[in-house]
Amino acid sequence: LGWRAIGDAEHAYASGLRVRGEAWHRRASLATQKDDYQDALTSLRHALSLQPKNFVALAELGGILEEFEDKAHALEAYRQAKTIDPHIEGLEDRIRALTKDVEGQGI
C-alpha cells in the first residue's frame, strides 16, 4: 500500500470510531430521557472508550454520577470535561461544589 492509501485507511478508521462514539453518546442521551441511568452510564462509557475527548459525554457522565452520589467520580469526569473545554456552562460551579464536598474546604 502507498502512503496515501494508508492515510485514507487511518482516516476511515478514525471516522468510524467517531461515528460509533456519537451513536453511543446519542443512545446515552435517549436512555437518560427515559430515566434508564444504568443504560445511560453503560452507553456513555462506550462512547468515551471510542472518543475519550468528548467533553459533552464527560459532563453528562459527571451529572449522572453526581445524581447517584458518586461525587468523587463525578468530580473527576467534570474536571476532565473542563480540561478539554473550559467554557462549558455551569461546569465550574459543579466542580467548586463537589471539590468542597469531596476534598473539604482546606485550611
Structural overview:
- With 107 residues, this protein is mostly helical.
- It has helices at 3-33, 37-50, 55-67, 71-84, 91-103.
- The radius of gyration is 17 Å and the shape is globular.
- The mean pLDDT is 87.
Number of helices: 5
- The SSE order reads HHHHH
**End-to-end span in angstroms?**
62 Å
Low-confidence regions: none
Helix and strand content put the structural class at mainly alpha
Question: Count of DSSP E strands?
Answer: 0
Radius of gyration: 17 Å
Overall mean pLDDT: 87
Assign an overall shape: globular
Largest sheet: none
User: How much of the polypeptide forms β-strand, as a percent range?
Assistant: under 5%
Helical amount among residues, as a percent range?
over 70%
Keywords:
globular, 5 helices, 107 residues, mainly alpha
Strand-helix topology:
Elements lengths: L2 H31 L3 H14 L4 H13 L3 H14 L6 H13 L4
Short characterization:
The chain is an all-alpha fold. The chain has 5 helices and no strands.
